[in-house]
Amino acid sequence: MLDQKRLPELIRETLNSRTPKRIHDAPSHYRHAGVLIPILAENGMHKVLFTKRTDIVEHHKGQISFPGGAADAEDNSIKETVIRETYEEIGLTEEDVEILGRVDDTVTLESSFVVHPFVGLIHNTNNFVISRKEVKRIIKVPWNSLISGNTDKRTCSVERGGIVYQTPAFEYDGDVIWGATAKMMQNFLDILVHK
After folding, report:
1. What's the fold here for domain 7-22+30-193?
2. pLDDT in tens, 132-145
3. What is the pLDDT of residues 56-77, one digit of tens each?
4. What residue ranges do the domains of the chain occupy?
5. How does pLDDT run across 154-183, given as a tens digit for each residue?
């Protein structure tokens, strides 16, 4: 079990001691996106923040995801995309988020994105302003729940658009985290546990 008190420091050290795997050979119709894997401390324990998407967003309706989205032409970097999207979806500014590092790129099969995940420590948990157009609610999953759920490498089958996907999955308090979000979370945990 990773030390809760030193968790942000351990994450920073581990992620900065490796080069994240990048996807350079995605089909040309794939767009680039960035997400934030937000870590926050609450009541003496660290949690990972997820968002439950609304049913009116363009991609991944009703699914659980990390704050983030497609890169815009005006963004100077994927990191800028992550900060902009995090602000648009849950109201956190660049001052509220300390970037600790990056994990490996992944792809979304259903929506054709190459996703570049950043891990960030949230300093001010009082600044959440939810975009009701994009986010139905915030979900905070205790770090230890994700680690303990990691031991059996749970997977699930999900049917979308007539295609059945096998995906890593995490369950917490009735919510199932699956697909690209679960792949990114699993990759993050694997990097930390097997460092």
Report:
1. Nucleoside Triphosphate Pyrophosphohydrolase (3.90.79)
2. 898 999 999 999 88
3. 766 656 689 999 999 999 999 9
4. 7-22+30-193
5. 777 777 678 777 888 898 988 889 889 999
